[in-house]
Design a protein that fits this description.
It contains twelve helices and no strands. The chain is mainly α.
Length: about 300
């Protein structure tokens, strides 16, 4: 068990450092430190998502009895992935730090000058995501490995597959960071992100209740009254941030659609462009394509 935990502790930070070094050193790229950090963090998140989804599919497809059947990969991957959530808190902070240093960023005027103030600002802005990661390590990890006592591996596998939405979220963040909202890739990825996030994260818990209802031969609407109260509480607490992040994605998709519609009016667009060119004090285009509000948190990656 400790060996698997140690392997995860080496793999995820090691992949991040290797990716960052390659992006900075490859002659055809020669990216800056900040760009390499941001893209490498998204890459590691996507790799973890693919690994978790693959493990989840293997586990879920191998369990005929959704309560009693066990698969060795369940606890093994949980142990392997726990260090990722600790590493990712640091990686998200480094992304935040470098984004604040980007000239012309909408928050550049308020960019923290010292690491301590940057950390405070990061925790305030990304409180929900940091809390999510802390809960995954301090609560979900011991519950999944010890408290379950080997039961419900099928449900654990399905929850692993929620990570299927993460690669499209990460790609969307990269495209927004580098102001590629106008590209077809961004629009296609946005639609894919909306669909996968809804299926894999919003419908996840209703599906688990439905599956258990079929297993126990009870109506779907009676399942919450039939399972222990702490199962309902845990599902509600895990689902609440997913609904919040999904609402951000929907708002972003709406802005993208409305922005595309407005771009079809050339006279208005030309007038706005000329006004921006003549106004030297005008604010730059927001790098967060989902909101013009600088305080809106980023979308979830996990």
């Amino acid at each position: 068990m400790l060996t698997i935990l140690a392997a995860g502790s080496v793999f995820f930070p090691g992949l991040f450092l290797l990716s960052k070094q390659c992006l900075k050193s490859i002659p055809a790229l020669r990216w800056s430190e900040g760009d390499a950090v941001i893209v490498s963090a998204r890459l590691v998140s996507s790799v973890q998502a693919v690994m978790a989804s693959s493990a989840g599919y293997i586990i879920a497809s191998s369990c005929e009895d959704i309560i009693e059947d066990q698969h060795w990969l369940t606890c093994s991957y949980i142990m392997f992935a726990v260090p990722y959530f600790v590493y990712d808190i640091y990686a998200m902070f480094m992304c935040y730090w470098y984004k604040m240093q980007v000239k012309g960023h909408e928050e550049a005027t308020a960019a923290p000058q010292h690491m301590s103030s940057a950390l405070t600002s990061y925790l305030r802005r990304e409180f929900l995501m940091v809390l999510h990661h802390v809960v995954m390590v301090t609560v979900c990890f011991p519950v999944s490995v010890f408290w379950r006592q080997g039961k419900g591996d099928y449900f654990q596998g399905i929850m692993f597959m929620a990570e299927l939405s993460t690669p499209s979220v990460c790609l969307g963040k990269i495209l927004i960071q580098y102001k590629q909202q106008h590209t077809l890739l961004h629009k296609v990825n946005g639609a894919l992100m909306l669909i996968t996030f809804f299926i894999c994260r919003v419908l996840l818990f209703p599906y688990l209740y439905y599956v258990y209802g079929r297993y126990a031969s009870i109506p779907f609407h009676m399942v919450p009254l039939s399972v222990p109260w702490h199962c309902n509480l845990g599902a509600a607490l895990l689902m609440a941030p997913q609904l919040y992040w999904f609402s951000l994605i929907c708002r972003g998709a709406l802005r993208l659609f409305m922005g595309t519609s407005r771009s079809q009016r050339p006279h208005a667009s030309t007038a706005v462009a000329k006004e921006r060119q003549t106004d030297g004090n005008a604010l730059p285009q927001p790098s967060n394509g989902y909101s013009a509000r600088p305080t809106e948190p980023e979308l979830a990656t996990h």
